[in-house]
Here is the input.
Amino acid sequence: MISRQAMLMKWLSGMMGCIVIGIIGFDVEAATESMTDCIACHRERNPILIAEWEQSGHHRPALDCQTCHGTRHDGTMAAHSRRNEVCMACHARERQSYTLSKHGVIALMEGERMAYPPPSGNGEARAPTCAYCHMHRNTHRMTSTATPCQDCHSPRFVDTWFTSGRKMIAIGAMKVREAEAVVHRLVRERMEGAFKARRIHEIMTRDHLGRVRLGVGHQSPDDQWWHGQPALDGDLLRIKSILHDALIKR
Ligand code: HEC
Ligand code: HEC
Ligand code: HEC
Ligand code: HEC
Ligand code: HEC
Here is the structure.
């Protein structure tokens, strides 16, 4: 008799629990939209995933979980974050190089037909997306390696691509170093145009050499052969002609 009463009480309290959850359900959902909640709860579930985010360039005050995952905790958060648009909203330069690559063109054409089941990196997509390469197999660590390529290409193709890519980057870096030597001379000898030359050299390092690197990393011929190498050639020529003019005026 007592045990039956206990069972009844248990059942009743269970029912009460459901009713309470039903009533405050909306509030619980709202609560999960707070950042501290995401981190605390998910650190308990998977500490590595959270630590990876904390050690990445994405650990910033203005860039929280919801920036990538959205606010609807209904089983679609991972799928939401794997969409290219999420990453492209911030990474404008990378957006351009990717969009002009074969991968980017395929992703654009496939659009909604691209499957987004977790985790990315099982060859489920026809062409890789941003998260496919940089967050391969469910990591928050931003990786830029050749590993994902081998889901779809032969090791030899990938190896050849990156070997010639490294040479391209080395050639670009040589142009930057040559320009640097000229800038040093202009500055050391206090020649006219030194400031302007230094500005051009900055753009070479920050922008145009970066374009060559992205051209390789994102398989984008435009970045290598239009925004990259030819731009570096033009920069170097301009810096040299500044020295030339300064020497004539002396
Ligand atoms: C009270 C604990 C808790 C809080 C708070 C919480 N989550 Fe979750 N989250 C879970 C659990 C449990 C699952 C597993 C559900 C499953 O596997 O079906 C999950 C699943 C997920 C998933 C994978 C499933 C999917 O939606 O694709 C993502 C991504 C995620 N949470 C992100 C977040 C983010 C971002 C926040 C903050 C806005 C957050 N979570 C807040 C407990 C929590
Ligand atoms: C709200 C803006 C924002 C969004 C959205 C965003 N990023 Fe970033 N990303 C940044 C910032 C800021 C950095 C740090 C840049 C730095 O340190 O110079 C960064 C850095 C990176 C890096 C360089 C590695 C590192 O750890 O610093 C990669 C790769 C990257 N993001 C890829 C992605 C991918 C893939 C996505 C989409 C899943 C994405 N980003 C979404 C702003 C964003
Ligand atoms: C096919 C794989 C692949 C895809 C798809 C891809 N990336 Fe990359 N990404 C790379 C590689 C490889 C690099 C080169 C890293 C290097 O050499 O510095 C790179 C470089 C970057 C960098 C600079 C990293 C750094 O450390 O300076 C950012 C940021 C970035 N990608 C963001 C994106 C975004 C955003 C997208 C989608 C629009 C995207 N990537 C698509 C492979 C990829
Ligand atoms: C730069 C964008 C970005 C940020 C910021 C980010 N995530 Fe993610 N997260 C992703 C992507 C993309 C994946 C899916 C990777 C994959 O598909 O392999 C993912 C995967 C996850 C998963 C695993 C989903 C599963 O299927 O198991 C969880 C849980 C998660 N994120 C929670 C969080 C939490 C909590 C935060 C804040 C501390 C956060 N994420 C910050 C982009 C991000
Ligand atoms: C999810 C599958 C997938 C992944 C992952 C992938 N690719 Fe691709 N890649 C493709 C497809 C599909 C094409 C288009 C092939 C065609 O031209 O028909 C392509 C095209 C290319 C091309 C252009 C070839 C040409 O003929 O112009 C290069 C270069 C390339 N990939 C390199 C890479 C590198 C490097 C990585 C890793 C950083 C990578 N791919 C990752 C599927 C993938």
About this structure: The two ends are 111 Å apart (CA to CA). Residues 1-32 have pLDDT under 50 and may be disordered. Residues 102-103, 106, 123, 125-128, 133, 146, 148-149, 151-153, 158, 161, 219 surround heme C (ligand 5) (CB under 6 Å). Residues 210 and 228 are 8 Å apart (CA to CA).
